Structure formats: structure tokens, C-alpha cells
């Protein structure tokens, strides 16, 4: 029924295999899919990869995710399904991992260049973010502003553009769908506190601390997107 996947855009391959099983009727309409852990074992991939695949299928309309209950095959006409283009965008967890690697290095370098003007800019963003935790759209814009402001400290406009571009990759339909399940005031509060740790490391002009603070922030961001859709409690991979 399931075939282990090769390490090439795994979430797309996982989505394709599940889509085929659903459209062929092997997984009937209305049936709950196996739990994430079981799907990950059968497909030979991580649970985050399974979550990315399930989000693709929900955006396409093939499945319905019911938090705390599981993922069910949707009751709709198969011919109405719009399959997302294979190169639509990178996987959400790949984007977050790339940001972790790149932005940690940028934070480290920023700590070597930071001045009072740069810290004031960060403080203004954090003050605004404090008042925007209930407004996800505004919080998202301020989150982006915080990360690009750190690149600004170095004084390299190309870095600012690059960070903005990689951040904006989270605007894909299935990244936004993933965020709709796991982002909210509590996650923005956590992000705000992590931003303050980054800010303090930069203000102390401590490159190692700034690098670690950014690495931890973006690692925890990945974990916040790694909750289970299913009925079983989340465990470490």
C-alpha cells in the first residue's frame, strides 16, 4: 500500500502517494488516515514531512484536518481537485531550517556592527509587536520587520533584500494553512520573548550570544509548527 520515499522533495512525493491512494479509492471517502506516526513509518519520512504533505492535500481539497481527531478523506468530487504545481514553493520546514542557518550568521555579524540607532529600531518594532499579539497579520509584518532590521544593522542592502525574500516564502498557500493551525497570540508571545533575547545579545555586542539566540528562536519556531494534527499526543521525533 505504501512505498518508502527517496530524499527528493519528500513532502511532495508523500502528498503524491497519498493522493493516488485516495483517488484510487484505496483510502475511501470519509475514512480517517492512519496517525501521523504510522504514516511517517510507512513512508519512511519524518512527521514534519507528513504534516507538510497533509497540508498540500488539504489545500487541494482532498482531505480535511480535524485537530485532535485526525485527518479524513474529504467528501468531494475527485475531478474538482486542483493539484498544486510541483514547484509551487519550498516546504515550510525547509524554509525555516534555511532561515535558521542564514539568520544565525547574520545575527552574529550584526552584533559586531550594531550601534544605538540599530537597537532603537529593534526596540520600536518590539514595542509595536507587544500591542499586536492578537492581530496575526500585524504581528507577522512586525516579525518580518524585526528580522530584516537585524540585516540592516550590517549595512548590506543585499542581505536585507535576501532576508525579506526568504521570509516571504511563507506566503505560499500551504505555509499559510499550516500557520492557521499553529500560530496565534500564544506563539506570537513566545516569539516576542525570543526576539527580546536576540535584541539583548545584540545590545551587548556579543556575537556568539546573538548567533545562539537567533538559532534558538528559529529552532523553537520550527517546533511550534510541529504539533500533531492527529489524535495522539506529540512526542519528540
UniProtKB/TrEMBL annotation:
<dbReference type="GO" id="GO:0003677">
    <property type="term" value="F:DNA binding"/>
</dbReference>
<dbReference type="InterPro" id="IPR008920">
    <property type="entry name" value="TF_FadR/GntR_C"/>
</dbReference>
<keyword id="KW-0804">Transcription</keyword>
<dbReference type="Pfam" id="PF07729">
    <property type="entry name" value="FCD"/>
</dbReference>
<dbReference type="InterPro" id="IPR011711">
    <property type="entry name" value="GntR_C"/>
</dbReference>
<dbReference type="GO" id="GO:0003700">
    <property type="term" value="F:DNA-binding transcription factor activity"/>
</dbReference>
<protein>
    <submittedName>
        <fullName>FadR family transcriptional regulator</fullName>
    </submittedName>
</protein>
<dbReference type="InterPro" id="IPR036388">
    <property type="entry name" value="WH-like_DNA-bd_sf"/>
</dbReference>
<keyword id="KW-0805">Transcription regulation</keyword>
<keyword id="KW-0238">DNA-binding</keyword>
<dbReference type="InterPro" id="IPR036390">
    <property type="entry name" value="WH_DNA-bd_sf"/>
</dbReference>
<dbReference type="InterPro" id="IPR000524">
    <property type="entry name" value="Tscrpt_reg_HTH_GntR"/>
</dbReference>
<dbReference type="Pfam" id="PF00392">
    <property type="entry name" value="GntR"/>
</dbReference>
<feature type="domain" description="HTH gntR-type">
    <location>
        <begin position="8"/>
        <end position="76"/>
    </location>
</feature>
Amino acid at each position: 500500500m505504501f512505498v518508502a520515499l527517496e530524499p527528493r522533495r519528500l513532502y511532495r512525493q508523500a502528498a503524491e502517494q497519498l493522493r493516488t491512494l485516495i483517488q484510487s479509492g484505496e483510502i475511501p471517502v470519509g475514512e480517517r488516515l492512519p496517525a501521523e506516526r504510522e504514516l511517517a513509518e510507512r513512508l519512511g519520512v519524518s512527521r514534519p514531512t507528513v504534516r507538510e504533505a497533509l497540508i498540500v492535500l488539504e489545500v487541494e481539497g482532498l482531505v480535511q484536518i480535524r485537530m485532535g481527531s485526525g485527518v479524513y478523506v474529504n467528501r468531494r468530487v475527485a475531478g474538482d481537485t486542483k493539484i498544486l504545481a510541483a514547484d509551487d514553493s519550498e516546504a515550510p520546514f525547509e524554509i525555516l531550517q534555511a532561515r535558521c542557518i542564514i539568520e544565525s550568521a547574520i545575527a552574529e555579524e550584526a552584533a559586531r556592527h550594531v550601534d544605538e540607532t540599530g537597537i532603537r529600531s529593534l526596540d520600536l518594532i518590539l514595542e509595536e509587536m507587544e500591542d499586536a499579539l492578537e492581530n496575526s497579520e500585524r504581528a507577522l509584518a512586525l516579525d518580518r520587520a524585526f528580522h530584516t532590521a537585524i540585516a540592516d544593522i550590517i549595512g548590506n542592502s543585499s542581505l536585507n533584500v535576501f532576508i525579506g525574500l526568504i521570509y516571504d516564502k511563507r506566503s505560499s498557500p500551504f505555509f499559510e494553512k499550516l500557520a492557521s493551525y499553529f500560530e496565534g497570540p500564544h506563539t506570537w508571545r513566545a516569539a516576542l520573548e525570543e526576539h527580546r533575547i536576540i535584541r539583548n545579545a545584540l545590545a551587548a555586542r556579543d556575537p556568539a550570544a546573538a548567533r545562539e539566540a537567533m538559532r534558538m528562536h528559529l529552532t523553537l519556531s520550527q517546533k511550534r509548527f510541529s504539533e500533531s494534527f492527529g489524535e495522539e499526543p506529540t512526542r519528540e521525533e
